[in-house]
Amino acid sequence: AINQQGVGIMKLANDEPTDLLFEPAKAVDNPLKIKSCDMVILAVKSFDTHAAINSVAHLVTSKSPVLSIQTGLGNLEIMAQVVARKNILCGFTYMAGAALGPGKVRLGGLGRTYLGEIDNKKTSRAKRLSRTLNDCGLETELITQIIERIWHKVLVYSAINPISGLLRIKNGRLLEKMEAISLAKRLIDEGLQVAEASGLNLSEFDLYDLFFETCKATSENVSSMLLDLLSDRKTEIDALNGAIIKLGKEYDIPVSTHLTIFELIKLGEKWGAGCQIPNS
Fold first, then answer.
1. In this predicted model, what pLDDT tens digit does every residue of 160-204 receive, in sequence order?
2. How many CA atoms lie within 13 A of 257 on its CB side?
3. β-bridge partners, 113
4. Looking at residue 280, what is its pLDDT?
5. In terms of pLDDT, which residue wins out, 2 or 274?
6. What average pLDDT does the segment 12-41 reach?
7. 94 touches 66 (CB < 8 A)
């Protein structure tokens, strides 16, 4: 579909499914068909990271590094098993979108993209990539302490995604009830304890403010986890709450709220969106 008509994009505040702006694009279903490139951007679900990096490993060099644009913990470690760690850049984005069909996407929200080197240096290749994305109209910022910043997003989205998924509500509605806010706060607090035990300093930003700001900025968005549950797809709960639980056990930090949320999402995955209440 992409090779036939390009990528169709539905702009913000547009609910007409036939009103799409198509941009030319080229797609392949086998990365081996690509012999060389300037940069590899890995933007897959966390559970597909290993398969994805394996498929493009021949393209990753010091002059053609791979940039991970993903939400979740553990992706860097998986990628480093396949390609040299020095050839990996990390990043994340607050842009949002949803697939409407083959080669068609609905823009769900504008947001800044952040990227950086693992060793926190502002290298020429990182500067060049940031400049290129900005020139394309994608607001991008090159930052240091990229791992800490990824943790900021993980802690906020480990609250937003599963709660919205379980309650079947848009992100903005999480701010309408004190019970939802209280639950999100407990998840953030537990995650922060785990981060600190891991030797990370996340004091640069107030995580509660970031939670509120994110919910407001994406108030009309259906979270990716809710979309996955409604579509009977596997969620990224393992790379969010699951990763926090794993580290909590390692550092002997109780994360009972994360564990409960994790188990509920797993039950939702197993039963599926089509589960019906029996008549008897």
1. 999 999 999 999 999 999 999 999 999 999 999 999 999 999 998
2. 19
3. 93, 140
4. 43
5. 2
6. 87
7. no
CB 88 within 8 A of CB 65: yes
Q: Residue 262 contacts by C-beta under 8 Å, 6 or more apart in sequence?
A: 162, 237, 241, 242, 245
Q: What predicted TM-score, i.e. pTM, was given to this entire model?
A: 0.89
**Neighbour-count burial for 160-192, b at 16+ CB within 10 Å, e otherwise:** bbbbbbbeebbbebbeeeeebbebbebbbebbb
CB neighbour class for 223 (10 Å; exposed up to 12, middle 13-18, buried from 19): buried
The model's confidence at residue 100, banded by pLDDT at 50, 70 and 90, is: confident
Tokens of 153: 């997003």
Q: What sections of the chain are H helices per DSSP?
A: 2-5, 49-56, 75-80, 124-135, 146-167, 178-197, 207-217, 224-230, 241-250, 256-271
**Number of residues that make up the chain:** 280
Q: Which two tokens stand for residue 274?
A: 């089509």
Q: Give the per-residue pLDDT at 274.
A: 57
Unique residue bearing structure tokens 């992409």: 2
Whether 275 has a pLDDT exceeding 90, the answer reads no
